[in-house]
Amino acid sequence: MRTNAWSLLMMFACTATAGVGGLDRLPAVTPDGNAERASIPAVCRWDLSALYPDEASWAADYAAAQAELARLAALHPRLDDPATLAAYLGRYYDLELAGNRLNLYANLSQNTDTTDQAAIARQQQGLALTADIMNEGTVLRGAVLALSADEMAAAYAAVPALERYRPAIDSLRRRAGRVLDPEAERVLALAGDNLWAAIDLNELPSPIERAYQSMLSELPLPQIVDEQGDTVGLTLANYGLYRASADRRVRRDAVQGLLGSLKGFENTFAATLAGQAQLDVLFARARRYDTALEAYLDKDEVPAAVYHNLIATVRAHAPALHRYVELRKRALGLDEVHLYDLYIPMVEGVDRPFTYPEGARAILESMAPLGPDYVAMAREMIDPANGAIDVYPSNRKDSGAFSSSVYGVHPYIKMNYMDRYDDVSTLTHELGHALHSQLSAANQPYLTSRYTMLLAEIASTCNEMLLSRSMLDHAASDAERAWLLSELAESVRTTIYRQTMFAEFELKVHSLAEAGEPITASRLNEIYASLVRDYYGPGYTIDPNDGVEWAYIPHFYYKYYVYSYATGLASGIAIAERVAAGEPGATDAYLGMLKAGNSRPPVELLQGAGVDLTTPRPIAAALEFFERTVAELEKLVVKE
C-alpha cells in the first residue's frame, strides 16, 4: 500500500513538471561515500569552465590581478581629485570581483578533493590575494573618509561617474567612526582584519580556521560494521548516512566513533576555536566595539538586539522541544533518547529512497506558488547537465553541502546526495541560495548584489517549507503524513533550536575571550553539554563524549553566522505560509526582497516582505508552528 501511495505521489510530481528534460536522461548512480571521484559520471560533476577553462587560465588571471594591484599604487597620491577617485574605485572593484572569481574556482576545485596539493596551493594563493586586496581597501577607505560631507557632495556634482559607487561610499561613511589612522589600518590588514570584507566571511577563512579544517579532514576515524555486517571506513562524507541508520548499533557506533576521535584531539580543537574567538575579539576591540557580536553584526547593519532576541525567544519555547524529545522516545519505543537517536525517521517504514531525478521533480513541483519564472530558473539550475551542481559524495570530497557564487557567473551547488529525503530537503535549501544569488545579480549592479547574512538563509528555508507543504498536501495515508510531519519537525529542531543553541555557544565562547578567561577543552565541553541539557530537556540522555560535538561544527569559525539559519527558517516559515495561502502581494513582495540584494538595510528589506525580526513575534510564531506540528504527530504516531 505504501508503495502505491508513493508511486501516485511521484506520478503527480512527474506530470506537473513534464519537460524537465535532462533529469530523465541522467545515468543511475548508487551513492557511496568511499567512491573514487572518477567513478562518478561526468554529468553529475560540476563544470568549472564557466569560471576558468583550466588551471593555466586561473594562473594567468591570478598574475594579472597581482599586477593590477601593484598598478593601483600609482593613483594613491591623487585620490583627493574626484576624477582620479572615480577611476580608482572602478579599478578597485573590478579587481575585487576578479579576486572573488579566483577564490571561487580555487575553493570549488579543492572542495572535491581535500588532499589535492595543487588545489590547496591555489586556495592559499587566492586567500593571500584577497588579503592584499583588503589591504588596498584601507587606502580606499582613507580616501573616501578624508572628504567632508560638503566635499563629498561637491565630488558627486563634479564627477557624475562617482554616483555608481555611492552605495559603497555610503556604507564606508556609515562606519567612519570605526576607521583608525593609516598605520593602525595597515597593521590590522596585515593581521587579516575581515570587518570590511566584501564577501561572506565563511568564504574567507583565517589561518586558524584553515588549520581547523585541515585537522578535521585528516582526523583518523574508525571502521564500523554496517547493517549488512560489512566493515566500512567511517568518513566525514558518510557519517550523516550512518548516523541516520535504522540499525541502532550502526548509528551508535558511527556517532561514538566520530565523537571518540574528536575527544582524542579535543585540546588541539579547543586551541583553534579559542584562537579564532580571540582573533575576532581583537578585530572588534581594535575598532572600538564593545563585543565581537556587535562588530560582526554591524558589518551588515544588523542590531545585536536581533541576536539576543532570538536566543531569549527560543529559550522561552524550549518546553516544545522537550515535548518533542518525549514524543520521539515513545514513537520509537526507546527507554532513552541519545544523540544517535535524533536523526532517524520517527515513523518506521515510511521513509523511502529518492533518486536525484525524483527529488528534483518533487522540488520543482513544490515551487509552483512562486510562479513560472522562478520554477524555470530552478529547472535549469537543478539539471546537472548544465554544470552547476556536483551531486554525489566521493572519498576525498569534503562533507556537507553549499551554494556559492560570484557576480557574472551562474551559482554553483555542492551536494553529497545519498538518495534520502533529507538530501531532497538539502537540495531545495541550496537551490534557494543559488536562486537568491541569481535574482539579485540579475537585478542589481555588482556593488548592491551581495545580500547580507541575515537574508542569506531565507530563500533556502522558504524553499524547504514549500517542499514540506507540497509533500504533505499529497500525502496518501496517515502513516505517510506522520512521516512528513516528523521531517518537518526535524527541520525546525535542527535549524531553529539547534542553530540557536550553536549561536548561544558561540556567544559564550566569545564572552570568555572578551573576559580574558581560559578557553579549554573541558570548559568548552561543559558549556556545550549544559546547553544541550537546557535545550533538549530531562528526557534526553547525554553520553560521556557528547560535550565534544562542538569540535565537529565548522560554523563556529564563521564569525556569528549560525544565528542566520534560525532567523532564516523563522522568516521562511512566515513567508511560505503567506505565499502558499495566496495572500495578495505576498509572492511579489518576497521576490522583490530576493531581487533587492543589499540595496537597503537587511532588516528593512525583510520588513518589506512582511517579517520583523526586531520583535519576538516571527520566532515565537515559528515555534508555535512547531508545537502544532508536534501535537498532530502525537495523535498520529502514539498508540495508547
Explain this structure.
The strands form 2 sheets. A 3-stranded mixed β-sheet has the order 3-5-4, with helices on one face. It is built from 25 helices and 5 strands. The protein is globular, with a radius of gyration of 25 Å. Helices cover about 60% and strands about 0% of the residues.
Brief rundown of the structure:
By secondary structure, the chain is mainly alpha-helical. It contains 25 helices and 5 strands.
**Contiguous uncertain segments of 5+ residues:** 1-21
Following the backbone from N to C, one meets helices and strands in this order, namely HHHHHHHHEEHHHHHHHHEEEHHHHHHHHH
Question: Strand share of the residues?
Answer: under 5%
Tally of strands: 5
What class, by secondary structure content?
mainly alpha
Output the strand order for the largest sheet.
3-5-4
Radius of gyration: 25 Å
In round numbers, the mean pLDDT is 92
Shape verdict: globular
Largest sheet: number of strands, sense, barrel closure: 3 strands, mixed
Helix content: 55-70%
Distance between the termini: 24 Å
Throw out a few tags for this protein.
single chain; mainly alpha; two-stranded antiparallel ribbon; 640 residues; 3-stranded mixed sheet; 2% strand; disordered N terminus; globular
Write the layout of secondary structure elements.
Blueprint: H1 2-16, H2 55-72, H3 82-111, H4 117-145, H5 149-158, H6 166-174, H7 182-190, H8 207-217, E1 223-225, E2 231-233, H9 239-243, H10 248-264, H11 266-286, H12 292-298, H13 304-316, H14 318-332, H15 356-366, H16 372-382, E3 389-390, E4 402-404, E5 412-414, H17 421-443, H18 453-456, H19 458-473, H20 478-515, H21 521-536, H22 563-580, H23 586-595, H24 602-608, H25 617-637
Helix pairs in contact: 1-15, 2-3, 2-4, 3-4, 4-7, 8-11, 11-12, 11-20, 13-20, 14-25, 15-17, 15-19, 17-19, 19-20, 19-22, 20-21, 20-22, 20-25, 22-25
